[in-house]
Write a structure and sequence with these properties.
Keywords: Signal. The chain is mostly helical and about 200 residues long. It is built from six helices and no strands. The two termini are about 30 Å apart.
Length: about 200
């Protein structure tokens, strides 16, 4: 192989490496953006509960929709990457949730933030925020792979569904909250495990 061919081969290898790094960076940015959107939506639900502009039943309905978004993210990340088509679908679902949060917080239906039921829902939604923030940090610093983030979002979807079922009748009982907390604790352990299992994003 001539010197010229060797140089061309090296140039192509460097270009391929840069392209791969660029694609990986774009994937990380997309996943991080989606998880941050989850944080934002949950925070808006929490704010609505605390201000009384969302009732427990409305928050439960919104958690049902949030579960769908989390499930879509989990499905998309099962192979470690999100396609443009999958990303577009996730963003449409997130936009729908955002519109419904805005609608429900301004529709004149109010909740009682001081009620035991609302307090339980508030605590559960705050836990959602914390878990999603931990996932986002793991994605950002490379301690979570995209596939791991997807698996953890599947766990979040399960929590959201439990919250949705518990609050569907407008009341979250103490027993229902204990059930939700058990699932939340399991997911918290999974986040910790995945962030410390020595598997890092390549």
């Amino acid at each position: 192989m001539s010197n010229r061919q060797t140089k061309m081969l090296k140039t192509l290898m460097i270009a391929a490496g840069l392209l791969g790094a660029g694609l990986a960076s774009a994937q990380t940015a997309a996943v991080s953006q989606d998880v941050q959107r989850n944080v934002n939506q949950e925070q808006r639900i929490e704010n609505g509960l605390k201000s009384g502009s969302l009732s427990t039943r409305e928050a439960a309905s919104l958690e049902k929709q949030t579960a769908r978004v989390d499930h879509m993210e989990a499905h998309a990340l099962a192979n470690g990457s999100v396609s443009p088509r999958e990303q577009a679908s996730i963003q449409r679902a997130e936009n729908n949730v955002s519109r419904d949060i805005a609608h429900d917080t301004h529709n004149g239906i109010t909740g009682n933030p001081a009620s035991a039921s609302s307090q339980r829902m508030q605590a559960d939604v705050q836990r959602n925020i914390n878990q999603e923030q931990r996932i986002k940090k793991g994605v950002a610093n490379g301690s979570l792979t995209n596939r791991e983030a997807g698996s953890l979002e599947r766990g979040q979807a399960h929590v959201d569904r439990r919250e949705a079922r518990a609050g569907a009748n407008g009341h979250v009982g103490a027993g229902e909250q204990r059930g939700i907390q058990r699932v939340e604790n399991r997911d918290s352990r999974a986040i910790y495990h995945d962030k410390h299992n020595a598997r890092v994003r390549g």
